[in-house]
Amino acid sequence: MDKKKSEGKKKDKDMVEDIKQLGVPNLSLENKEIQCITIIGEIEGHMVSAPQKKATKYEHIIPQLYAIEENPNIKGVLIILNTVGGDVEAGLAISELINSLSKHTVTLVLGGSHSIGVPLATSGDYSFIAPTATMTIHPIRMSGLVIGVSETFEYFRKMQERIISFITRTSKIDRNTLYKLMNSKDELVNDVGSVLIGEEAVKYGLINEVGGLKEALGHIKKLISNEKLQENSQKNK
Fold this sequence. Notes:
Layout: H1 2-22, E1 34-44, E2 55-57, H2 58-70, E3 76-86, H3 88-99, E4 104-113, H4 117-122, E5 126-129, E6 134-137, H5 149-170, H6 175-182, E7 194-197, H7 199-203, E8 209-210, H8 213-236
Pfam families: CLP_protease (PF00574)
InterPro entries: ClpP (IPR001907), ClpP/crotonase-like_dom_sf (IPR029045), ClpP/TepA (IPR023562)
GO molecular function: ATP-dependent peptidase activity; serine-type endopeptidase activity
């Protein structure tokens, strides 16, 4: 009995540590159909973010997504976003991985999903945005020393094309509209770009629907239910 209590306490301790570090319980201990992943603060890539900043580490998110794909009990994934953006390569890598999941995936923008957070928001099967949530769309940029101007420009152009291609592939916005929003000079004082609030993101085709947690979970459950109906129908044939 003491051994069982000890194992139970260790399991609880491990779960608390997972929640503290990753924002979710240990996936191997979960037996539910829908798994939630949170992406908050700055997307941390190859460079470590400042200690005073909240950050989502891509080396934490990628194993979670792998575990979800391998877990037959999990049928759907809810990605909750409140991010300022961050490392472009890491954000795009996470977006591609989410988009390649065989599970039903729904994204929900709360607060904001800015910069490289935009492709993260469009990476699922369906997307929601809270009425007051915002999305900032702008070209990629850098600070620091530029050694070769033409070479750096070409690298940035290719990186920008990767982002545009992903967003237009995973949402209903067209390339020309996205490009105009990225390079608008009317909204940001110290930069070019656009800020879309709630319904505006839906109007431009970037996000599917305005809604919150209830709507996002309801949509995943509907997708899972439809899949089960199709499976039963195939079995009965």
